[in-house]
Amino acid sequence: MRLNQLTLVAALAAAFPLFATAADAPAAPAQKPWLDRSLSFDKRAELAVKAMTREEKLRWVFGYFGTSFAPKGTTPPKGAIPFSAGFVPGNPRLGLPDLLETDAGLGVATQATPTPRERTALPSGLATASTWDTQMAYAGGAMIGSEARLSGFNVMLAGGVNLMRDPRNGRNFEYAGEDPLLAGTMVGHAVKGIESNHVISTVKHYALNDQETGRNEHDVRIDKAAARMSDLLAMQLALEQSDAGSVMCSYNRVFGTYACENDYLLNEVLKKDWGFKGYVMSDWGATHSTVQAANNGLDRQSGQEFDKSPYFGGALDEAVKNGYVSEARLDDMATRIVRAMFAKGVVDNPVAQGGKIDFAKNGAVSRATAEEGIVLLKNDNRVLPLSKDVKTIAVIGGHADVGVLSGGGSSQVYPVGGNAVPGLEPKVWPGPVVYYPSSPLRHIQALAPNAKVVYDDGTDPARAARVAAQADVALVFATQWIGEANDATSLALPDNQDTLIDNVAGANPRTVVVLETGGPVAMPWVAKIPAVLEAWYPGTSGGEAIARVLFGAVNPSGHLPATFPVSEQQLPRPKLDGDPKQPEQRFTVDYKEGAAIGYKWFDQKGLTPLFPFGHGLSYTTFSYSGLASQVKEGRLHVRFKVTNTGNVAGKDVPQVYISPLAAKWEAPKRLAGWDKVALQPGESKEVDVVVEPRILGMFDEKSKTWRIAKGKYKLVLAEDAAGKNATSVTVDLPASTLDVRGRQRK
Fold it and tell me: What does the DSSP 8-state code read for residue 421?
């Protein structure tokens, strides 16, 4: 959603009235068979829509922004929750409730108000992806979904699964990294957790909206088969894992046509090939037409205040009357929406505002996610974990005395206790910049009660170096704020922080850098720093999580969901396409890398990254043995043993990669599966990873099949994509053909 581009147009008067008058409304039916819970969701939706007038059907496909902002002379939506993302009026005559919508994937957000609602924030989507733990993703989703429900919402605009084609993308922090299998699986479980609360969730932004610069105008060009094996596969897997009630189409064009009126994306791929039964909602401001959008698969115009016209208001009514949009298509649009309401329990379990939220319990869920998502990137000479007997600690920079950073835009959750650092720029969209009041400094002091802990704000690198020189260990907190609608201008840390780190490292050889960033950053100082933690945006309880990892109360187990390049020169597009100063200028983005995203691009080009995909260290060590494979009931199983060979308990993420020895792929290898294994010192566990069959094949767009070539394939078990601690085995696979949904064709 975009607040800065809210177009309050007088043309809203052309839309049909929000509510019919009592005189116009038909009488409530004596019987409401669609409320019979014993019927299938399809039947209930069919019966409900059959009982609707055309005007009632039209109301379901027309959404409002859920705030009190409205053009002069119009009335704000009645029934909407103030300062929320969206609202669709229900149908009391038929017993169908309002749709009350909240942003977004990290928690219950507040839109444009001086008095925001305070809620629990998860760490960034990248942090959740870094856990490589589907149960953790589900738990986080269930937590924010519960807060949405207790806040009176029954729709949550969550489930971002756009792949990281560029580490500078301003919304990477909302997403789940660069690999379609990892991203689709993790986001799918998060959405499933949200919807466990009888809340409709979305998978977004569909599709190929992988940068924010020119997001409303840029036109993505990519080979269709490559798209099916990358961004679209991630979306498909997320939908299969979650059965999400809705898909949100994106701002950009794809193959020359806007995503929200793109017949290929919406009708051919999503609804026909994947069999999606839910509804497609536009992003706020992403609807551009009436007839083309409706006929090409858009089911609902969202937040029509952001669009140039209320396309699905009076104009759609007129188009149906004149036959430009069929009555059957309008029925399908309404049916998909109402079916999702039945399928997700929205009708049978109505929400009510004012529920009591257990912030302590939910904060613990956020903290656990942060702890398992923090990635120990480097730890020379075992600088970490810090000893509780350390005498002097210098904490430098990043406002670490008061809080931890969060990302900007529509996913911004306002924390309990308010913004710890008010007044930072930008103060308006996609700001304000918000620091959650979970102080790393305070929690460090709590874990080292006998130490002298000194804080310096880091604004003067020379002064910070003097403070660091007097300490046993120096902890530098480095931050990178990004947000929706703004891409990072480079991979460098902003505000002269590289100089700060360099100076502190020169003054204290025991310097630890803690990164709070929205994605990968360059580290020109990394050779001088013995230990680096990537904490991402660590959420409501992030300060405590960081401290617990630093002192070993938690053994880090996060692994990177994205490659960290040395510099922009290693990227497919060293210079980001488009001009942020000309946001309305149309331009083309050529995804020449196709499906070779992230580590696949680095493998294909023979590049060595700063830190590889899957990388993550621990305070203990692990070994692998007994690697074997077997094709059983048409699925490739990979078996092995993991052993904790160190002295402390820890969690490992063994990763299985597969490479064809004869067949041609877009890159030398693909992630085929993984597990997360908790082990006590000396303990071993047997692991069985079942490989997703589509990972083994190439997609053929003409036949819409996945084709697995006969021959030998190399299975590599390793700690990361670079092959650390690797062991391998060869497997023979027969030729086979899978349909578009990955099912074996007979």
Answer: S
Please report the pLDDT score of residue 22 as a whole number: 39
Structural contact between residues 708 and 724, judged by C-beta atoms closer than 8 angstroms: no
- % of the chain surpassing 90 pLDDT: 90
What would you report as the CA-atom Rg of the chain, rounded to the nearest whole angstrom?
26
Could you give the CA distance from residue 200 to residue 153 in angstroms, rounded to a whole number? 9
Q: What is the DSSP-derived secondary structure letter of residue 265? A: I
Low-confidence winner among 3-17, 255-269, 414-428 (lowest mean pLDDT): 3-17
User: Where does residue 725 rank: exposed (0-12), middle (13-18), buried (19+ CB within 10 A)?
Assistant: middle
Question: Is the pLDDT reported for residue 323 higher than 90?
Answer: yes
Under a CB-based contact definition with an 8 Å cutoff, are residues 308 and 301 in contact? Answer: no
Identify which of 604, 729, 711 has the alpha carbon closest to the alpha carbon of residue 660.
Answer: 711
The three-point CA angle 167-172-173 to 5° equals 125
Over range 258-286, report the average pLDDT.
Answer: 98
Q: E-strand spans in 492-621? A: 511-516, 531-534, 588-590
Tracing tokens 């479980």 back to the chain, one arrives at: 189
Taking the C-alpha atoms of residue 81 and residue 77, their distance in angstroms, rounded to an integer, is 9
pTM: 0.95
* φ, ψ at 271 (rounded to 5°): -85, -40
- In the predicted structure, residue 18 carries a pLDDT above the cut 60: no
State yes or no: pLDDT of 12 exceeds 50.
Answer: no
64 Cβ neighbours under 8 A, 6+ residues apart: 18, 77, 80, 86, 87, 88, 303, 304, 305
**Phi, psi dihedrals of residue 501, rounded to the nearest 5°:** -65, -40
- How crowded is the C-beta side of 140, counted as CA atoms within 13 Å? 37
- pLDDT surpasses 90 at 262: yes
Instruction: Write the CB contacts of 538 (distance below 8 Å, at least 6 apart in sequence).
Output: 123, 124, 127, 370, 373, 374, 404, 438, 516, 545, 546
Residue numbers annotated as active site: 283
444/435 Cα distance (integer angstroms): 18
Encode burial over 400-420: b for 16+ CB neighbours within 10 A, e otherwise: bbbbbbbbbbbbbbbbbeebb
Nearest to 315 by CA among 12, 108, 82, 552: 12
Are 269 and 213 a contacting pair, CB within 8 Å?
Answer: no
Whole-angstrom CA distances from 399 to 156, 441, 458 are 31, 9, 9
Q: What is the pLDDT of residue 67?
A: 75
Say yes or no to pLDDT of 74 above 60.
no
Phi–psi pair at 198, nearest 5 degrees:
60, 45
Work out whether strand 279-282 and strand 86-88 pair parallel, antiparallel, or are unpaired. Answer: unpaired
- Mean pLDDT over each residue of the chain, to the nearest integer: 94
76-120 tens-digit pLDDT: 578 888 889 999 999 999 999 999 999 999 999 988 777 899 999
